[in-house]
Write a structure and sequence with these properties.
By secondary structure, the protein is mostly helical. The protein contains eight helices and four strands, in the order ββαββααααααα.
């Protein structure tokens, strides 16, 4: 069974993973709610210390609701995308990112719930950068496969105006994302605040270098 949204075929059998993560999050929230303390840790600083809290109800409902909202947003993207054919050809990347984001949110919800219920500390300052590093490396390895579209990839005025600029920019961007992901993996090796600054360098490499490169390519193409 399948649905067709704006020319993009959504197979129902591909939706089960997102449904499962939302259901698990809802069940865990329902189970944990009566066992949570009055102040539930919700944010950790760069030193790994808790610096933000929420209520038991906010914790039990907040993340499952966020996951549901993200899932709906991902369902809307194919409907809104103007470049239907290109998006359809990049659908595998779209599915990978969606599944990773749903799994990542569920993973964070599970470990923060465990911390709230048991009171046992976790190295969130290590766990989260490692997960982000995995995401960056996955993106880097698949980035060159994305066709020009308005919702995925390195979308600048210059990449969207030229398929050649798009292709070359995403080829370089793939390397930048992998390097950025590897920098995230080094987080446990650095003292505070370098454990924050080094991963931020990875984000800057992945974000700024391809943008500047796309502009240079575009200017060269116009000559």
């Amino acid at each position: 069974m399948s649905l067709v949204s704006n020319g993009v075929k959504l197979k129902i059998k591909n939706e089960w993973f997102s449904w499962l993560t939302i259901i698990i999050a809802a069940i865990v929230g329902w189970w944990a709610y009566p066992q949570l303390p009055l102040k539930v840790p919700s944010h950790w600083g760069i030193s790994g210390q808790v610096d933000g809290w929420t209520t038991p109800l906010g914790h039990a409902l907040g993340v499952p609701a966020m996951m549901l909202g993200l899932y709906i947003l991902f369902l809307l993207i194919p409907i809104l995308e103007p470049r239907r054919k290109n998006f359809q050809e990049s659908f595998g990347f779209y599915q990978m990112i969606r599944n990773f984001m749903m799994a990542f949110l569920l993973f964070l919800f599970l470990i923060t719930t465990w911390t709230g219920v048991t009171g046992q500390p976790l190295r969130i300052d290590v766990i989260v950068p490692m997960a982000v590093g995995v995401l960056f490396i996955l993106i880097g390895n698949y980035l060159h496969q994305i066709k020009s579209n308005f919702f995925m990839g390195i979308r600048t005025p210059w990449t969207l105006s030229s398929d050649t600029v798009w292709k070359k920019t995403h080829h370089l961007g793939g390397y930048m994302f992998v390097i950025g992901g590897l920098l995230f993996f080094t987080t446990p090796l650095w003292p505070t605040p370098l454990n924050f600054c080094i991963p931020m360098l990875g984000i800057l490499l992945a974000a700024l270098v391809p943008i500047v490169y796309s502009y240079i390519l575009f200017r060269q193409e116009q000559k």
